[in-house]
Structure formats: C-alpha cells, structure tokens
Design goal:
Layout: H1 3-12, E1 16-17, E2 28-30, H2 43-48, E3 53-56, E4 67-69, H3 73-85, E5 92-96, H4 101-112, E6 118-120, H5 130-136, E7 144-148, H6 156-164, E8 168-171, H7 179-182, H8 185-192, H9 194-201, E9 205-209, H10 215-219, E10 224-231, E11 241-248, E12 251-257, E13 263-271, H11 275-288, H12 293-302, E14 311-315, E15 318-322, H13 329-341, E16 346-352, H14 361-374, E17 378-382, H15 384-387, E18 395-397, H16 400-407, E19 415-420
Parallel strand pairs: 1-2, 2-3, 3-4, 5-7, 5-8, 6-7, 8-9, 9-10, 10-11, 15-19, 16-17, 16-19, 17-18
Antiparallel strand pairs: 11-12, 12-13, 14-15
Helix pairs in contact: 1-3, 3-5, 4-11, 4-12, 6-9, 13-14
C-alpha cells in the first residue's frame, strides 16, 4: 500500500495508537517493534479491542481484512507523519538543545496558543517515534506547530527534521550532555547544529540567543536569523529583540520595551536564573509572531512548572526546589550557581549522578563537587558515580531509597533544598509518601 493510500485511511481514522494496552475504538494500531516486544504479536488483540486497522510488517501472520501489511511499520509511521505534515502551510518551529528545550517548548506553546490554534509536543515525545506521533495528532485547524527534537547521537536531529520539515528553529544552548553517545562536546555541537543546517538548506529562519555561547558560530552566515539577547537597558534603536532580567530571587521577573516605548513587566512562577533564557525565548517568539502583550503576560505569569522541572514543593517549614528530570555538567553547574545565589536561607544541595557521560564521568563529577565547595554549599550526593570519588567530608548515598530512609529521620527546619540529578537517579522519590 502506498503512503497516499494509507493517508486516505488515516483521514477516516485519525487516532493513531502504538500501545495495544491503550486501544481506542476506530484507531489505527501501528505494530512497532522494541527491544523486548514485537507489536505484530498484538495486532489481532488490537482489532478485537476496537482498532479499525492494524499496520503490520510480519507477512507470516494469518491474513485479516483489517491488517495492512507494510515492509517496515516504523518507517511507514514516519513517512505517514511527514505526508500529514506536508498538508499544512504553517510555521512549524523545531526546538532542540542540551538544556531547557522542554521548558522552552512549554512556554512558547503557552504564549502562542493564547493567540493561535497551536499544536505542540506533549511531554517528551521528541524522538523518532514521538515526533511522528506528534505530527499525526495535528488537527486540521492548526495555525502554528512546535516540535521538540531530542537526540543523543549525531544524525538524529537531521533525521527528525526530514520528518517534521520545520520552517523555523531554535536551539536553546549546547552543553556537555550525552557525551557517551556524541563522543565529545564537538559532537554535541555538530548534532544540535543539524537543525540550523536543515533550515539553511530549506530557507527557514532560526531564532538565536546571542548570549548563548557557540550558537552564532554554529549558525553560519547564510541562515535567515532573528537575534535576541539579554540586556540591562532595552533599546528601541537596536534591531534585535531584547529582554531585561529584573529579578531572579527566587522567581524570574523580566521586562521588555514595547514598540511604543513602554516598559512591560512580567513576573513568572519559574525559579532559577537558568530559566531566564527559557522565558526570554518564549517572549521573543511571541513578539515575533505578534502575540499581544496582555496575552504574553497572562500566559507566562500563569505557567506553573511540572514533571520534576523547577518545581517548588513545601513540606513543613522546609522548601524543595525539585529539578530532577535530568542533569548534565552544564545544567548542574547552572543549577548550583543559581541555588547558591539565593540569600537569607539555610541551603542544602542534594545532587544525584549525571549519567551517560562515558569516559568523561569521573572528571565531570569531581568538577561538580569542586564547584559546590567553591560556592560554599553544603551537599549530599546520591549514586554510584559520586560515590566512587570518595570525597572526604561529603555524605554520600548509593541510591535515593537509602537517602530517603536517612533523610526523614533528621530534624531539618526552615531549610531550602535543591534536588538535581539525572532521570535514572529518581530524586523525586525523596518527596513521595
């Protein structure tokens, strides 16, 4: 069956499912394969549960009028998603970066959907399966789409661009993450820069934060660009978007000049200086796409972080900054520096291992402890990577369960805690009853 023919079926059954446990009546079930499963084995079950058709790639399955046999289910899913994408002549904004891409995507989506029918990546559906599913969920009335793109190997961003065909793009930053997969920091730059290269080749436009190191160099001279930057005093005469940092103690407050020269203030519910760039990016895109100031202000000020990202949680007299969705050298450094800047509070940083650093791991974990000590922070470490360093004077726990058992036997009062670590460490479990 051709993609065009399959697309006609999709238009009649636009609900796509890849999990046989979540079948909805009338959906298309794509029988994907994984490391520990083969979706083909659940095709019959999916039909029995109400799927309209099952897209399979095992020719040995018994024939069924509701089975659609293709050469490769995953490739078919990706091709169908690209075909659906090409039916829309709208801005499609690709977002990637080492840190902050999900929060930035959430903020941009929040401000743009206040003014336009907007479709965007839900959660972290940002890989070779998540991006196609996001595109296939795009309704016909969509006027702007925001597609998050993640990667841990060179070539992945380019591949996702071929599927999503972004017209606009934003790289939040480049830092030392997934070094095991990228090989080096230069590998990170090459991989993230694939978004710029796609945009340049296809006459797209990139939003570039001038204050983020490497981005202008990576973009090259031939790419259409919108530059934006942090400034102390926004200047109407400067032909770039400028945003002023008003405060970050602890919540980020920003300001910018309107075209009429009026200083517009926005107070966010996001804590941490590192969130300023995320907010600035969202405000820049909102201004570029002509979202009215009142809608920008209301959207940013009403946004509350979730999913273990910059969340403030209170327990008794203590307060926790839960930023434990993920961690790498760059994000850990920014988190510790920001945490150390908060005044007038007893502070303890609970830091978990930074994973997927390969041969750079030992050096990176030493570097983070050195930084914390130079900032005068009291720290507790969690995980084997920190544990094998045997640093004197630092209380270390092999895992979050052990930390939790010890922690709640203590008598902490009026203390501000930072929880920062890689997803695999699960520091959020410390706060669960």
């Amino acid at each position: 069956m051709t993609i065009a023919a399959l697309y006609k079926i999709f238009l009649d059954h636009p609900n796509v499912c890849t999990d046989s446990r979540k079948i909805e009546s009338g959906c298309l079930f794509f029988a994907l394969k994984g490391g520990n499963f083969d979706g083909n084995q659940f095709a019959e079950q999916a039909i029995q549960q109400g799927a309209a058709f099952a897209i399979i790639d095992n020719p040995n399955l018994s024939k069924h009028k509701q089975f659609i046999l293709v050469e490769d289910v995953l490739i078919t899913l990706q091709q169908l998603a690209h075909h659906h994408r090409t039916q829309f002549e709208i801005p499609v904004i690709g977002i990637t970066g080492t840190n902050g891409k999900t929060t930035t995507k959430e903020l941009i989506s929040t401000v743009l959907e206040s003014h336009y029918p907007t479709h965007y990546t839900k959660g972290n559906f940002n890989n070779h399966i998540g991006v196609p599913l996001t595109l296939l969920a795009m309704p016909a009335n969509t006027e702007v789409a925001i597609i998050e793109m993640g990667a841990n190997h060179v070539g992945e961003i380019d591949f996702l661009c071929q599927i999503a065909a972004p017209t606009h793009g934003l790289i939040t930053n480049v830092g030392e993450a997934h070094l095991e997969g990228f090989g080096s920091f230069e590998g990170v730059k090459t991989a993230k820069g694939e978004l710029y290269k796609y945009l340049e080749k296809n006459k797209g436009l990139a939003f570039i934060n001038k204050k983020e190191e490497h981005l202008q160099e990576m973009a090259g001279p031939n790419l259409y660009k919108v530059l934006y930057t942090k400034s102390i005093t926004p200047d109407l005469e400067v032909p770039i978007f400028e945003t002023k940092l008003v405060s970050a103690n602890p919540f980020v407050e920003i300001a910018f000049l309107s075209k009429k020269g009026i200083l517009q203030n926005i107070k966010s519910q996001l804590i941490g200086l590192y969130n300023f760039n995320n907010i600035m990016s969202a405000v820049t895109l909102a201004r570029y796409f002509k979202v009215p100031y009142k809608k920008i202000k209301q959207s940013i000020e009403s946004y509350t972080p979730s999913n273990n990202r910059s969340q403030i949680i209170k327990k008794g007299s203590n307060k926790f900054l839960l930023d434990a969705y993920n961690a790498n050298i760059t994000s850990m450094t920014k988190a510790l520096e920001s945490f150390a800047s908060y005044k007038g509070q007893n502070k303890i940083a609970i830091i978990g291992d930074m994973l997927e650093l390969g041969k750079y791991s030992v050096e990176a974990h030493h570097k983070i402890i050195d930084l914390a000590e130079s900032l005068g922070l009291e720290i507790l470490t969690v995980g084997k990577e920190f544990g094998q360093l045997n640093r004197k004077g630092i209380k270390q726990f092999p895992d979050t369960t052990t930390l939790k058992t010890w922690f709640w036997k203590q008598s902490f009062e009026n203390t501000f805690f930072l929880l920062k670590g890689s997803r695999g460490i699960g520091l959020e479990k410390l706060l669960k009853d």
